[in-house]
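User: Predict the structure for this protein chain, please.
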Amino acid sequence: MVFLTGATGYMGRRLAAELVRRGRPVTALVRQGSESRAPQGCAVSIGDALDASTYRERVPKGCAFVHLVGVAHPSPAKAAEFQAIDLESIRAAVEAARFAQVRHFVYVSVAHPAPVMRAYIAVRTEGEALIRSAGLSATILRPWYVLGPGHWWPAMLLPAYWIMERIPGTRESARRLGLVTLRQMIAALAGAVDSPCDGVRVREVPEIRQPGAG
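Assistant: Here is the predicted structure, written as structure tokens:
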């Protein structure tokens, strides 16, 4: 079974559909009044993603917990929102996951280090630390930018990436901070659910790009 936060969002809706297609029972956490927005085929759990006490008792024991809550369209101007939403939601998710003794936790972090988006990277890195300190078995995915509907503008940088990946001095950074597609990201998330691990494993951009990355 899979418990999914952020199920009505950019990646959440698509991941829920893919998991249902694979025969996974999915419970989607949604806010009161947003039940109609829950992805088709999912059970619905009402709660506040920023407050574990509102939903932790409804997380299925021993399930896979996928956390996708976060500020839409991150930018350096949203540092306060990262603290209020991204950080508080991962704190709540870790608390709920420990309470339910989940089998596997899946978290979308961000590629780092990087010269920009320091506030966002700091919050996501703190999220990773919370997972580790809680002793959860987890898969942490670190994309840089996910190309998809409404998120295509970085595609114009692909020629620059192509050049940088062929220069020894910039090759590592270009690969670590490379672009992934929404299709690749959903496949990597679903693959992580299908292949739980013991301890913590990290999937960087090159691994996310691999078909069916687990």
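The chain has one domain: 2-148+178-208.
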